[in-house]
Design goal:
CATH architecture: 3-Layer(aba) Sandwich
Number of domains: 1
Strand order of the largest sheet: 3-2-1-4-5-6-9
Strand content: 15-25%
Number of helices: 6
Low-confidence stretches: none
CATH class: Alpha Beta
Number of strands: 9
Largest sheet: 7 strands, parallel
CATH topology: Rossmann fold
Radius of gyration: 17 Å
Mean pLDDT: 95
Structural class: alpha/beta
Helix content: 25-40%
Order of helices and strands: EHEHEHEHEHEEEHE
């Protein structure tokens, strides 16, 4: 029975991750720490529906004191439940930021959340992850962070997002190399372009589809996947024309 911690759980991909994890059998999932800046109505509904399984922890990615304060809370819950450690950390929280390079006055701020934030989450929760059975870190990246694929995304207006996701991919590789001898699996995942809200209603896939694939990849990927940049697989999307394809293969850096 695995224990998960998910950042950015109040909405979008993060909320769907918690919801799908909570619905899995007791033999597969024990506890999900759903972290967010605040507990909104949707997240509160999940904690009330699964009171012994979904634990809300206030945590703002990028806020050092908030991240530090969350560690002993998670550790205490694990001890009370008689659990050894944390099995899977999913670094999901992120922000988009400036659309064009000429507008990037906020790059430092976006970098702090999208790159430094996940880095500090790994550092701070590493002692608990070392005590876990699965020892997995899943960094939610994006295919638009691929430098190789930038010619096709040239007109996609998300400059700060692209830059920070490329940096997050390197962060994944560096941590994967450092923790490999300890049996860790650290991967970047492309979740696909998902219909997370009204602004993304025209996106490729329902959020449930992408999240289901994220969790399936996280479940089945072991040390052979350490340090890789993995794409989701959606039947019919392997060679579909357009910006995005979802073939389940490694994405180029």
């Amino acid at each position: 029975m695995a224990t998960y911690l998910v950042t950015g759980s109040a909405r979008g991909i993060g909320h769907e991750l918690v919801q799908q994890l909570a619905a899995k059998p007791d033999t597969e999932i024990n506890t999900i720490f759903a972290t967010s800046r605040a507990e909104n109505a949707r997240l509160k509904a999940l904690t009330e529906q699964y009171p012994s399984r979904v634990i809300f922890v206030q945590l703002t990615v990028g806020d050092e004191s908030s991240m530090r304060n969350a560690v002993p809370i998670v550790e205490t819950v694990l001890k009370v439940k008689g659990l050894k450690g944390l099995d899977v950390l999913i670094n999901n929280a992120g922000v988009v930021g400036s659309a064009y390079a000429s507008e990037m006055a906020d790059l430092d701020e976006i970098f702090h959340v999208n790159v430094t934030g996940p880095h500090r989450m790994i550092q701070l929760f590493l002692p608990l992850l070392r005590k876990g059975n699965e020892k997995k870190v899943i960094n939610i990246s994006s295919s638009v962070g691929s430098i190789t694929r930038q010619p096709r995304y040239k007109d996609f207006p998300a400059a700060a997002y692209k830059i920070t996701k490329a940096a997050l991919n390197m962060l994944t590789v560096v941590w994967a190399q450092e923790l490999a001898k300890e049996g860790f699996t650290v991967i970047s995942q492309n979740p696909g372009w998902l219909q997370t809200d009204e602004a993304n209603a025209h996106a490729d896939l329902p959020v449930a589809t992408g999240v289901g694939q994220i969790l399936e990849i996280a479940r089945k990927t072991g040390q052979e996947g350490n340090g890789r940049f993995l794409n989701i697989h959606v039947p019919g999307w392997e060679k579909k024309p357009g910006l995005h394809q979802y073939d389940g293969k490694d994405l180029p850096w």
